[in-house]
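pinging the channel bc i need a second pair of eyes. not urgent but kinda urgent?? the chain im working w is below, pasted from the shared doc
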Amino acid sequence: MNKIEKFVYDALKRHPQIKLFVRDMYQNVMDLIPDKPNYTANDVKVLEGYFWGFHDLSPISNDERHMLGCKLNIPLRMPEPGEPLSIGYWDLSESNQHSSFLISHSSFKEVATSYAWGYHKGCRLQWLGDSNDTFIFNTARDGQLCAEIHSTLLTPRIISFPIDTVSWDGRYATSFSYRRLNELMPGYGYDIEDGSYLDEGHPADTGLYIVDVEKNTRRLLFSLDYLASLEPTENMKGARHFVTHTEFSKDNQYVIFMHRWIHDDPDKRFSRLITCRLDGSELYISPTTDMVSHYVWDEKWGILAFCRINNVDGHYLFSDHTMKRWRHVAPQLNSDGHQSFIPGADAFITDTYPDGRRYAKLWRVDLNTDETKLLADLKSPKAFQSPNCYKNWCCDLHPRVSPQGTYVTFDSVHTDHRALCVMKLGE
């Protein structure tokens, strides 16, 4: 954002409805300017009609031979409960040996179907642990949310609970009420009842769960009632609480999650990060002020989050799970973004939301120098701007770097169609 845009954003950020109105009016004026060409630093394979979802999971396998994907079966509207989403994969092995991509629509191998999904977090499709042929995703069977594990070698297996993120060793997964998430943060959960206790602001019988994937059991790690009592703030009074955006540390010892709460307006959220061991001990709360939006965890660098500290929004790097030490990274990137570390490099990728001309950018950031390099600048047509939080079909880039750092994948609508995009990262 430029200085004027940043000033207006800061003045209106506590008034989301006014902020959205001003944004829409500003973009309508900027639409009078002719479009500039879309830009990418390297060649991009655009797979229209497919998407992935959030930035915290890579669709590409650990050996970088296969890429998972979600194939849409409906036009641009919110999915109804029980509508199918096709699940499958592409073989990247030949593309790894060539400068150009050899994947296409016809090479997509459809293998499963999800009946519980959304545009932003997909169906939480992800590779299971360090496997290169086994994956897990959320779905619904007989009106009940669950997860399915699929493999090229084994018969599909059912997990009795929906999952959010699986530990890096594949042993555990996080879980919470997706019905509650969908109510309090529309478009991110599923409209399927799963013990959401929607009539309670901070129920004692739901919250953050840890699932034992092998045993198909789960235990309540923290109830929402407990989280609401933990260093409460004034704006928690009378609020409705929920958890979301979970991730395991690379050594599988800790879990991090977002504790959020709202009052009457789902667009006006308050957030904080919490880390702990898998048994609930060693609990730490982020030193943020009411706002955390996105984050990612790296074994070398720690936790990188877009958040607010000392009333300044930005990307902050916390040195470890205690979140007691931090530094402001690349302060020139003053707009929200979704981060992904580049393995083997002191750098990360992040994106921006569409600017005044509806262009979303993809940046590479050097963690040692704070220097940035533009990787993509792509148009987001007005049709893909969410009319409101209940029709939340916008398309964020959500960049994900592959496990070996060869590719960056992202979702985009710059061709007037939602698409899963793949770009070789290079130097």
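so The mean pLDDT is 93. and The helical segments are 3-12, 16-30, 178-184, 224-229. — does that match what u expected or am i reading it wrong
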